[in-house]
Amino acid sequence: MASKISAVILSLSFFSSFVAISSQNDEYDPTIKTMEQFSGYQIHDSISSLSVHTQNLQRQIDELSSFSDTPAPSVTRVLYSEKDVLARGYIKKLMGLSGLSVREDAVGNIFGRWVGSQPELAPVLTGSHIDAIPYSGKYDGVVGVLGAIEAINVLKRSGFKPKRSLEVIMFTSEEPTRFGISCLGSRLLAGSEELKELLKKTVDSQNISFSDAATFAGYTLNEDLSSVFLEKGSYSAFIELHIEQGPILEEEGISIGIVTAIAAPASIKVDFEGNGGHAGAVLMPKRNDAGLAAAELALAVEKHVLESGSIDTVGTVGILELHPGAINSIPSKSHLEIDTRDIDEKRRNLVIEKIHKSALRISKSREVNLSEFKIVNQDPPALSEDSIIEATESACQELKLSYKKMISRAYHDSLFMARISPMGMIFIPCYKGYSHKPEEFAAPEDVANGVKVLALTLGKLSLS
Ligand SMILES: [Zn+2]
Asked: Which family, according to UniProt (predicted)?
């Protein structure tokens, strides 16, 4: 209660100083004065008026998690499902309540705009996703959407007037659950012709086409999907608030992570084919075991990654399947899926090259056929924009919050937005770094800190 009262007093003192300024000098445009305060000249009064409605925000996070196809505490919310449609309605309602003008594009990326005093300037965009993989938690993505709407509320309550328009986005389908395509909405926004074409023939595991699924959710795709594409420069900045999904901030007791780069993944599919045979009858010198070829390649992936000399290079064989999968049968086929990431694209591509060479060498030495070596995707990493890093950093300093610059090893919609807009990300700590499981948790005060930093950063970017 005491803190509530002091918050009210603080915000009253902010407004009274505001009134005093405008009555002192009638030519003074109070809007501009507020802008100056937010651009760092007289920041102290405005800082104290940045109050997050923490309990309300937590209630919204809880309410949104109830739109789920699995029981609490797990959350399952798959693209264009009934629950996804309900959750979308919930987000649009909150955007409306915050006074944002809401629009949706053809695939259901949802935008809510607060028009600035100079609407002709490129707006500042913030947001994340709310879809959730099966049996996951309620914070991944959600913090960056509900938190963004609350950041707008924070700015509005403080009396701030944006110069550049501020816009909140909820991206369609960050998770690849339904159609096997991650960051579907942001890839399209970034103008992926390849994805536009692919979506014409994409079906889910139930053989429902992307277009039919979208229609179910109320989006008719008969218009050309290139209507979703954004031109480079449509936004002056994009910034995403997200839980860290790793343990560093919590372990080190740091409030805010400022992302400097997002490591980008490449994924590779590999198939080996041998002759198979009876596990007893075929003698060792006569074998060409596709399973052992796969095992050797898995170890080669680890070796090449470690050889890169950088801690930022990682590689994983997450799928290794053997055919026919019987104890008494020599594997005649093997299938591997390899994920490798780095913040340095050249270094990562060198690892891919080495993996390819190893696959060829193994197929030769083991006399198995390398029937497929397919690079499924090879996205470039993204660097955050210096000016956004600086704005976030000074926001942390002004709010007296500890912060650390760090790399995002998971990728996000930000990776693709970086192709068309200067990009930045704000991380908050989460319990033990857990994510994509029901135990995922971020403390309300950590979420509130993230929202405050986001609000102040948006304020600064709006005036820049
Ligand atoms: Zn996410």
From this structure: Belongs to the peptidase M20 family.
